[in-house]
Specification:
Radius of gyration: 25 Å
Helix content: 40-55%
Shape: globular
Strand order of the largest sheet: 10-13-14-9-8-15-16
Number of domains: 2
Largest sheet: 7 strands, mixed
CATH topology of the largest domain: Aldehyde Dehydrogenase, Chain A, domain 1
Length: about 450
């Protein structure tokens, strides 16, 4: 493996040469990335199946499909995004023009997680390329087949001094964080996110942190329960719950709790049969440590559905747990697995107190047919993003910037927001030399009167 410091220096030389600045270059690289995904598509399915037992359908909908859509959008609109934008100039600056230029940061570091190991490595890369940066990608060591394939694909497609995949464990990440990158994009857990921010702060490197948290799913008494049950079962148990925006726990109105639980059990069985352990389309837990961590959660409360597991395949059946308090272990951190705790509420205002136990979640989902209550939830609770009467689907709209708030993250991406994230908005004022306004200078006799008039004092 090449010395990390030398690798970063090669990237800096590439960037400083100015090659990445043109629209033509960036479009060509984005098209190469798109062609790469098509060319390696069969092996992508294979790698993700080996790492996480992902079905081809799930790979297409949650990994490849999203990336291809993102690439098409970026290629179509990149020229417009790159164009310097003229803005208004105040009368105190008469004769001047004000322009915002779109400047790349330079050499970027992308640290991606294991739960969507292709999607969450390539999606930020699209933003980095479109904005004119170079990129070093550090994929997760917990998904070795996909990480190996990612390294092979990138090496075969791009110059090493432009896009590089650098594999390794925690020590590799620590080495990378000591390098003078111009921007860091991290997706992962809150504890690691704090370390990333601390290390970046030592060099004042700007960061995007895509983290997580306990995303609530609220089912009100006027919700369409059949549809809510179906959409929640799908959103929670996709990728065996190993999704940063998966519904982490249910808040169900007390008057419909029993009816709703019955319906969601039915929907789980429709999606995965009554035993997902034997269903090839149901994902595995990523490794034994996470598998055991999730099983420990089943010691809390009362399992009212599921709970079975298979250590050989690292699978846990979709599980619903009742009689849970905020002191239960399962409610202390993001679950990141196929376990769904249930709590109830009586008044909508009570929901705020519930969510305050783990505030600023990455996502929130609310099921109700009442517009006023939908608006109340949206406006009165702090969360990164979410859906009304659905789950996960906001993630698939690249016109909606995606990201957290507070403890669930810093910064946004997807679509144009990805370009903006990897771009410095450079403000420039171009002043005329045809004349000079005397009132700006302290020795102007009329300066104060003119300025008072302009400022309407």
């Amino acid at each position: 493996m090449k010395d990390i410091s030398l690798l970063v220096q090669d990237h800096k030389k590439m960037y400083r040469a100015g090659k990445t600045m043109t629209h033509t270059f960036r479009i060509h690289q984005l098209q190469k990335l798109k062609d790469m995904l098509h060319r390696y598509e069969p092996r992508i399915y294979e790698a993700l199946n080996k790492d996480l037992n992902k079905s081809s359908y799930e790979v297409l909908t949650t990994e490849l499909g999203f990336l291809l859509n993102e690439l098409n959008e970026t290629i179509k609109y990149l020229k417009d995004w790159m164009t310097p934008r003229k803005v208004k100039t105040p009368s105190t600056h008469k004769g001047a023009k004000s322009i915002i230029y779109k400047q790349p940061y330079g050499v970027t570091l992308i640290i991606s997680p294991w739960n969507y190991p292709l999607h969450l490595a390539i999606a930020p890369l699209i933003g980095a390329i479109s904005a004119g940066n170079t990129a070093v990608i550090k994929p997760s060591e917990l998904t070795p087949y996909t990480s190996d394939l990612l390294e092979e694909m990138i090496k075969e497609t791009f110059e090493e001094k432009y896009i590089t995949v650098l594999q390794g464990d925690k020590e590799t990440s620590q080495q990378l964080l000591k390098e003078p990158f111009d921007y860091i994009f991290f997706t992962g857990s809150v504890p690691v996110g704090k370390i990333i921010m601390q290390e970046a702060g030592k060099q004042l490197i700007p960061v995007t942190l895509e983290l997580g948290g306990k995303s609530p799913c609220i089912v009100d008494r006027d919700a369409k329960l059949d549809l809510a049950a179906k959409r929640i079962a799908w959103g929670k148990f996709t990728n065996a719950g190993q999704t940063c925006v998966a519904p982490d726990y249910l808040l169900v109105h007390e008057s419909v709790k029993q009816t709703f639980i019955k319906k969601i059990k039915e929907e789980i069985e429709k999606l995965y049969t009554d035993n997902a352990l034997q269903n090839d389309d149901f994902s595995s837990i990523v490794n034994e440590n996470h598998f055991n961590r999730l099983l420990d959660y089943l010691e809390d409360g009362k399992v009212i559905y599921g709970g079975q597991s298979d250590k050989n395949t690292l699978k846990i059946n979709p599980t619903i747990v009742d009689d849970i308090t905020w002191q239960s272990n399962v409610m202390q951190d993001e679950i990141f697995g196929p376990i769904l705790p249930v709590r109830t509420f009586g008044r909508l205002e009570d929901v705020v107190d519930e969510i305050e136990h783990s505030r600023n979640p990455l996502a929130l989902y609310y099921f109700s047919e009442n517009y006023q209550k939908q608006e109340w939830i949206t406006r009165n609770i702090s969360f990164g993003g979410g859906c009304i009467n659905d789950t996960l689907m906001h993630l698939g709209n690249n016109h909606l910037p995606f990201g957290g708030i507070g403890s669930s993250g810093i910064g946004k991406y997807h679509g144009r927001a990805s370009f903006d994230t990897f771009t410095h908005q450079k403000s420039v004022l171009k002043q005329t030399t045809a004349f000079d306004l005397a009132f700006r200078y302290p020795n102007s006799k009329m300066g104060r009167k003119i300025l008072n008039k302009i400022y309407k004092k």
